[in-house]
Amino acid sequence: MAVGIFDSGLGGLTVLEAVQERLPDVAFIYYGDNAHAPYGVRDADDVYDLTTRAVERLWGAGCDLVILACNTASAAALRRMQEKGVPPGKRVLGVFVPLIEALTERQWGDNSPPREVAVKHVALFATPATVSSRAFQRELAFRAVGVDVEAQACGGVVDAIEEGDMILAEALVRSHVDALKRKMPNPEAAILGCTHYPLMQNVFQEALGPDVQVYSQANLVAESLADYLERHPKMRGEGGEGAYLTTGDPRRVSSRATQFLRRPITFTAA
C-alpha cells in the first residue's frame, strides 16, 4: 500500500516533493489527471465527477489515504465526497486544512467558537473555480472573525505553467497581483491557493512586497501529513513502491514533470 497524491495536473508535484522529503520512508502514488487539466475552469459537478474517479483509481491501487493536492478539487469536491460517504478504512484529505491551521494558529480539531486572529487582511490567489466556490472563506469563517479576504481568480497561470511557458506565467502573476492590490492595497498575508503557484512564489512575493507574508502549501501539507500519520499509523500502509500515473500522454507528462522537479520522472498510463 501507499499514500495517494492526486492533482488535476502537475502542480501537485510541489506537494509530492515536500512530503517525500518529510516522509522518506512512505511510498507515494501520484495521479495526475492531465487529460482533463486544468480543473480551475470547470464547473463543480464536473470537478466532483473527475475527482471521484481519480480517488477511486488510487483506492484501487492500494492507497487507503488520498491527499487532494488540488485546491479546486478540495474546494469543489471534498465536502461532497465526505457527505456521500467514504468507504470504511479509506480517507480523503484536502489541502485547505493546513493553510487554515497556519493562518488561524489553531488545530483543525479545535471546535471552539471563532476568534480574532492576528492577520486581518488576506489576499487569496486561486483558480476561478476555487474562488467561485468560496470554500476557503467558508472554512476560515468557522474559525476566525474579523478577517477580510479579497480573492483574485488567476486565469491562465495554470495553463502557462503546464505548458512550460514561465515567462507568460510570470507576466500573468504580476497582472493578477496588480488587480488584487487595486481592490486591497495593503494585504498583510497572501494565500497561494493552487499547488501550481509555489513554482511562482518568488514572483508573487516580489510583486506583493516584502511586508506581505506569503503562505504556500507544500511544506504546510507535508508537516500536516506527518502529524496525521503519526496519529493514524495504519493509514501509512505496509510498504509498497511509489508510482506516477497520468491520464495524459505519459511521455509528454514525464518530460514536463522532469522540468518541474529537475530530476527524472517517469509517468505511466493510469
TrEMBL record:
InterPro entries: Asp/Glu/hydantoin_racemase, Asp/Glu_race, Asp/Glu_racemase_AS_1, Glu_race. Pathway: Cell wall biogenesis; peptidoglycan biosynthesis. It comes from Roseovarius halotolerans. GO terms for molecular function: glutamate racemase activity. It comes from the Bacteria. PANTHER family: GLUTAMATE RACEMASE. It catalyses: L-glutamate = D-glutamate. The active site is at residues 70, 194. The gene is murI. This is Glutamate racemase.
